[in-house]
Amino acid sequence: MAYMNTDKKVEQLYNQYHALRTRLSEVGLICQGSALKRTYHRDTKGQTTEYGPYYSWTRKINNKTVTVALSRPQHGLLSKAIANQRELESLLRKMRTVSEKIVLLQAPGVASRKKRKTGVL
Q1: Model pTM?
Q2: Domain boundaries, position 48
Q3: Crossing angle, helix 72-106 and helix 6-25, to 10 degrees?
Q4: Block mean pLDDT (10 aa), the chain, length 121
Q5: HEC secondary structure over the chain
Q6: Which of 29, 38, 71, 111 has CA atoms 20 to 30 A from the CA of 118?
Q7: Phi, psi (rounded to 5 degrees) for 24
């Protein structure tokens, strides 16, 4: 495997990081939780009746699950914001990984110690 010049590798990593940062700036509104659309079916006297759809948003606040009823337009906007939140988290994970590689390549590491001969203490 051919090894790339460290400066060239760091430059490529910086380019990758800046591309991720640009994508990060394009993320829209963000919200955590789950947006649900539910319909209910009830059997009465051999007939099935459908109720709904009902929309809700569930999330954690102070370690408690909180659910809020939503309108259809709110559900649409919230679903997009939740997808944006997940994209944001993915981008941050990637940026963290690239940052770690840059730091480890740019700064000198700890000098390696010589291995001891076996049986010598």
Answers
A1: 0.78
A2: 29-102
A3: 160
A4: 72 96 96 96 90 96 97 98 97 97 87 75 62
A5: CCCCCHHHHHHHHHHHHHHHHHHHHCCCCCCCCEEEEEEEEEEECCEEEEEEEEEEEEEEECCEEEEEEECHHHHHHHHHHHHHHHHHHHHHHHHHHHHHHHHHHHCCCCCCCCCCCCCCC
A6: 111
A7: -60, -40
